[in-house]
Structures are given as C-alpha cells and as structure tokens.
Write a structure and sequence with these properties.
The chain has 181 residues and is mostly helical. It has helices spanning 14-27, 32-37, 43-51, 59-72, 76-88, 93-100, 108-122, 129-137, 142-165, 177-180. The protein has 10 helices and no strands. The radius of gyration is 17 Å and the shape is globular.
C-alpha cells in the first residue's frame, strides 16, 4: 500500500497552488500525478515546462512514444492517461493496444516510432542499430531522434514517480496487455 496521499491545494507551496489553479482552469481538474509532483516546490513547474516544450514530433507521435514507454515501464497511471489522450487525438482502441505493444500495423512511420520508443526504453538507450536505421529510412531526422529520446526520458520520470508512489489513477483504467491476449 502506498504511503503517498495525493496532496491537496492547501498542502502545497503557494507557487504550486498557482499551478493547480491554472490546471483546474485549463483541464477542469488537477491530475493526481501532477499533484504528486507538487510535493517538490520545483518539480511540477519543471515537469510541465519540459513536457510542454516545443518538439519536432506531432501530438500523435508524442502519444505513440508515451504509450510504448509507459507500457514497458508498467505504469498504469500513464497508460490510462495516455489512452484517454490518444483517443482524443484520433487513435482507436485497437490502434492504442498495438502502440502499447510497440507497433502500429496501420501506419509504417508510426510503427517504427513505436518500435524505437519501446527499444530505447527496454535497452536503457542502447538502441538497436537496425531499428534506428528503419527510423531514419522512414524519413525521421537526427533531430527527431533527440526529441524521441527526450520524450522517453520525460515519460520515464512520470512512470517512475507513479510506480513509486502508487497514487490513485484518476483516468479510465486500462487492462493489462497480457489480459487481452
């Protein structure tokens, strides 16, 4: 059982209270994971700045990486959140399951992106040269690669925070891939 409760607005610093207010206005709620970042006076702001920074990846491509990384890292919270976000970005339930597994038979470019994100995460950055070659052959650039690696790191941090704190998931839950096979 977790020893971490989700902090309320009154339990965080004034700086984080202002961020909570902005999240409440923008999203309609403060996601539990974001609130958990607020145990630190700096981590929530740092995370949101990094997570929302400009990237060469499209919103859909970011979700491909988020799903593949969260699956490898076994983060129920992030899988639930990014499944909901992926649906808002036009992915179907079946496509999301494929992306979680590290593939995308429905799109060659997204397939290699999912495969790369999964491989980077599983290998801790010791990326398979064949997968990397396929990534570049699909038209991705070295800049795209750096952005993918940055996003893997970003998502891994959230995965680790959730996996360590075990805060409650406040998005529709998803099944484990193993249960679906």
């Amino acid at each position: 059982m977790s020893t971490f409760n989700v902090p309320t607005r009154d339990e965080v610093s004034e700086k984080n209270q202002a961020i909570f207010d902005n999240l409440q206005k923008g999203l309609g709620f403060v996601p539990n994971l974001f609130a958990t970042y607020a145990y630190s006076d700096t981590a929530l702001e740092n995370y949101l700045n990094f997570s929302n920074a400009k990237t060469s990846l499209s919103t859909k491509e970011k979700e491909v990486v988020n799903l593949a990384v969260s699956q490898v890292n076994g983060c129920e919270y992030c899988l639930s959140a990014h499944t909901a976000i992926s649906k808002m970005n036009g992915f179907t339930d079946d496509e999301i399951l494929e992306l979680r597994a590290g593939g995308a038979s429905f799109d060659a470019k997204l397939n290699v992106l999912a495969e790369l994100a999964k491989n980077i995460t599983e290998s801790r950055g010791n990326t398979d040269a064949t997968i990397l070659e396929k990534f570049f052959n699909q038209g991705y650039t070295k800049g795209n690669l750096i952005d993918v690696i940055s996003l893997v790191g970003d998502k891994t941090i959230s995965n680790y925070i959730n996996n360590t704190t075990q805060i409650p998931v406040d998005f529709p839950p998803v099944q484990k891939l193993e249960e679906l096979v």
